[in-house]
Every structure is written in C-alpha cells, then in structure tokens.
Amino acid sequence: MEAAGGIGMLFGPLMGALLYSQGGFMLPFVFFAGVYILAYPYLAYILCYALSIEKRLKAAGTGSAAASPEPTEVETIGAWTLFSKVRFFFVAMSQMLLMLSL
C-alpha cells in the first residue's frame, strides 16, 4: 500500500499536468473518473474470486492456498449484482463524485 501511494504521489501530478495541458481544467477529472468506473467492476470481480477461493479453503479445512489447487469454476458476477450491494454502490458513487468534483 505504501508503494502504491508513493507511485500515485509521484506520477499523479505529472499525469494531471499533462491532461490539463491537453484538455483544460475538466479533462483530468473526467479521465480519472473514467478510470475509476472501469476499475471498480474489475476489482470487485477479483475480490469475489479471492473470496470464493478463501471460502473453499476454509471449507476444506486448510489454511494455505498451496495446499489446494485452483478451483475449477469461477463465480460470475454481473453489473446488477455489484450495484445491488449498497456498500459498493455508495463507494462507487462517492468516488465518481469526488473525481468529477461535484
């Protein structure tokens, strides 16, 4: 987490300045709002996949991923399933509003 924060602090102002010089004041906000919109479903999918592996490991009674092979089927998750979760919905909306600075 510290490394990701450091990289963000290093490259964030550079990317913001480049986007500002190309498209004006609103472009950095709109661009990063789009990045968030695209990243949330992917991250939610990855988290659900990791949770399904963790549940299977707990059900098998083992504590490590090395003891059990990868699961053969992956839970599919739809956009409606994501946005029906109140917590996901409010986090997504707060991030979009923050990035659009409304």
Structure write-up:
With 102 residues, the protein is mainly alpha-helical. It has one domain. 76% of the residues lie in helices and 0% in strands. The protein has four helices and no strands. The protein has helices at residues 2-23, 26-60, 79-84, 86-100. α1 runs antiparallel to α2 and α2 runs antiparallel to α4. The radius of gyration is 18 Å and the shape is elongated.
Task: Give the helix proportion (percent range).
Answer: over 70%
What integer value in Å does the Rg equal? 18 Å
Shape: elongated
By DSSP, the count of extended strands is 0
The residue ranges in which pLDDT falls below 50 over 5 or more consecutive positions are: none
Helix count, DSSP H or I runs of 4 or more residues: 4
Short structural description:
The chain is mainly α and 102 residues long.
Q: What's the layout of helices and strands?
A:
Elements: H1 2-23, H2 26-60, H3 79-84, H4 86-100
Helix pairs in contact: 1-2, 2-4
Structure characteristics:
about 100 residues; mainly alpha; 4 helices; about 0% strand
